[in-house]
Amino acid sequence: MKRIQVLAVWSVIVLALSVGQTGCNPNTEQSANVSRSQTATTPTPSKVSAADAEKELTQIERDWAASIVKRDTSLSESHMADDVAMISPDGSTSTKSQFINEIKSGDLQLDSIDIRDIKVKVYGETAVATYRTTDKGKYKGQDISGDNRWIDVFVWRDGKWQVVAAQGTRVASPPTTSPSPSSPPATEKKG
Fold first, then answer.
1. What's the whole-model pTM score?
2. Please, what is the average pLDDT of the chain?
3. Which residues are within 8 A (CB) of 84 and not within 5 positions of it... i.e. 6 or more apart?
4. Which residues, at least 6 apart from 83, have a Cβ–Cβ distance to it below 8 Å?
5. Burial of 122 by CB count in 10 Å (0-12 exposed, 13-18 middle, 19+ buried)?
6. How many C-alpha atoms does 81 have within 13 Å on its Cβ side?
7. Alpha-carbon gap, residue 20 to 10, rounded angstroms
8. At 99, phi and psi to the nearest 5?
9. CA separation for the pair 46, 126 (Å, rounded)
């Protein structure tokens, strides 16, 4: 099962990397409506250092988490690609519109998201962010509080970073151990 999950994550990353290499090239037909003056003035990942892109993406992740807690969908709307592939920690999949509607309707209510251990790697016009969260909240009335690990794949599109794939994995709680049994009861000697 774990092997299948690893293969699925790698498949998403490879897909995103291939999209990042073809979908963001200013010379492709997809970007044909962008004028030369727009292309020249819009910063691209190749015009900024990897360290600056990593800082920007780290801030996007922090701001995005904060906006979800506030039930503000504006960052989700601008930083999620229309064709994003999302897998929640429970294994369910959703689209951008489903995710935004869940926030707006109150089906997804997160009271807090403690985001930490953010690591970002930039590969030209594609980037991968991994991080850990401790969430407190509910989904459709059910408690979903707990620790999760996340991977978000970004591509540079339309002059900004957009998430094209996101997956959360529940981090198992450490097993609770019962206290070690005390010494076996002493047997009485009769005698």
1. 0.70
2. 79
3. 95, 96, 162, 163, 164, 165, 166
4. 96, 164
5. buried
6. 23
7. 15
8. -60, -45
9. 11
